[in-house]
């Protein structure tokens, strides 16, 4: 446990890595997103991300040919595992720091662009989408049935296969400690990510 803590502290003891931790705590981000936000080269950002992942502070997951990074999850039981350490470090970052503020402004621009791309995808596919949805049972009935089947609390993990717009995670995500959505369509994953970032 002590070696894990020291490894996490060593990995995060660099300004760019702390910035990347803060950004990945807010959103799941691809390397290209992070390159745009922090204004560093792709090889440099990738190297920092590898160090943070190796220390367990960040998690990497693939969507087709893309890789996304997020803050490591930590169990409800607590303890100072890598995910909890990363969260503690982020809470120590000064909100008024001009570099952190600039990163957050650039992150907001990336999120706005994602939302615009999601809206454009729906605009292009709206007529087909509505026709397909009309063939199925209404959303409210499906959500009520799933809600009745799921435990009300103490749900550890939720896996939404064919997540589409991310609605099931949006609806039931707060009942669990971790929710993951998978979908064969990268466009739909972008829609889901945008929807979840905007949900309260």
Description:
It is a single chain. The chain is α+β, with helices and mostly antiparallel strands. It has 9 helices and 5 strands; from the N terminus they run ααβααββαααβαβα. It has a 3-stranded antiparallel β-sheet. A two-stranded parallel ribbon has the order 4-5. Helix 3 packs antiparallel against helix 6 and helix 6 packs across helix 9. The longest helix is centred in the middle third of the chain and has 37 residues. The protein is globular and about 55 Å long. The chain starts with a helix and ends with a helix. The mean pLDDT is 84.
* Count of helix runs: 9
Tell me the overall shape: globular
Low-confidence stretches: none
Work out the radius of gyration.
18 Å
Structural class: alpha+beta
Q: Write the H/E string, N to C.
A: HHEHHEEHHHEHEH
The share of residues in helices is: 55-70%
Q: What's the arrangement of strands in the largest beta sheet?
A: 1-3-2
Task: Average the pLDDT over all residues and give the rounded result.
Answer: 84
How is the biggest beta sheet arranged?
A: 3 strands, antiparallel
- Please report which band the strand proportion falls in: under 5%, 5-15%, 15-25%, 25-35%, 35-45% or over 45%: 5-15%
Number of strands: 5
Termini separation: 35 Å
